[in-house]
Amino acid sequence: MKRIVILISGRGSNMEAIIQRCAADGWPAQVVAVLANRADAAGLRHAAERGIATAVVDHRAHASRDDFDAALADAIDRHAPDVVALAGFMRILGPAFVRRFEGRLLNIHPSLLPAFPGLHTHRRALAAGCKVVGATVHLVTSELDHGPIVMQSVVPVHPGDDEQALAARVLATEHVIYPLALRWFVEGRLRIEGGVVTHVGGASQVLA
């Protein structure tokens, strides 16, 4: 049974989707812990109500990013994870942290990477006149919002869309592709060659 640790900073809607699908679909895995960098992260209560271990590693309590990263990594390792899923975790993780969990650290980003890494993705996409946007599940590397792409969703931009409307439609697809990508990971259905991720069974890695 594979062990999943999820990192959050807020409400944890992607965390909820992962927990739900893991239980409902009978993955060969379980979510063993949810960690947050904020004590007021609403997702902590959701996880605790489901009997999942929770912990807070407050970034403000550490003198440097490296100190925070080390404390967070130690807290994660207490749960012996096979995979660590960043689900709305709003801290940049340093190279040493990424190396420690290399190959088992996943993230979801609300754009079609490599376009629009970082913040305000929907605002930037609208300003650029994009006709489609989406979300990307990827393996984490030391370069922000880069790394081998596992799965992407494609969402059309409608006339009159604002940031909020677009974000809501993209988020709905995140709740589909992140659990699916994570399930493929724990089931050993992904192959990485030359920095490119493929599904060993040829399943589509695009939700359109």
Description of the molecule:
The protein has 208 residues and is α/β, with parallel strands linked by helices. It is 33% helix and 26% strand. It has helices at residues 13-24, 43-49, 65-77, 95-100, 121-127, 163-186; strands at residues 2-8, 29-36, 53-56, 83-86, 105-109, 132-139, 149-156, 190-193, 196-199, 206-207. α1 (13-24) packs parallel to α6 (163-186). It starts with a strand and ends with a strand. The model has no long low-confidence stretch (mean pLDDT 97).
Count the beta strands: 10
Strand content: 25-35%
Q: Structural class of the secondary structure composition? A: alpha/beta
Radius of gyration: 17 Å
Strand order of the largest sheet: 3-2-1-4-5-6-7-10
Order of helices and strands: EHEHEHEHEHEEHEEE
Question: Whole-number average pLDDT?
Answer: 97
Biggest sheet statistics: 8 strands, mixed
Count helical runs: 6
Helix content: 25-40%
Distance between the termini: 31 Å
Shape: globular
Low-confidence segments, ≥5 residues, pLDDT <50?
A: none
Relevant terms:
208 residues; alpha/beta; eight-stranded mixed β-sheet; two-stranded antiparallel ribbon; 6 helices; 33% helix; globular
Summarize the SSE layout with pairings.
Elements lengths: L1 E7 L4 H12 L4 E8 L6 H7 L3 E4 L8 H13 L5 E4 L8 H6 L4 E5 L11 H7 L4 E8 L9 E8 L6 H24 L3 E4 L2 E4 L6 E2 L1
Parallel strand pairs: 1-2, 1-4, 2-3, 4-5, 7-10
Antiparallel strand pairs: 5-6, 6-7, 8-9
Helix pairs in contact: 1-6
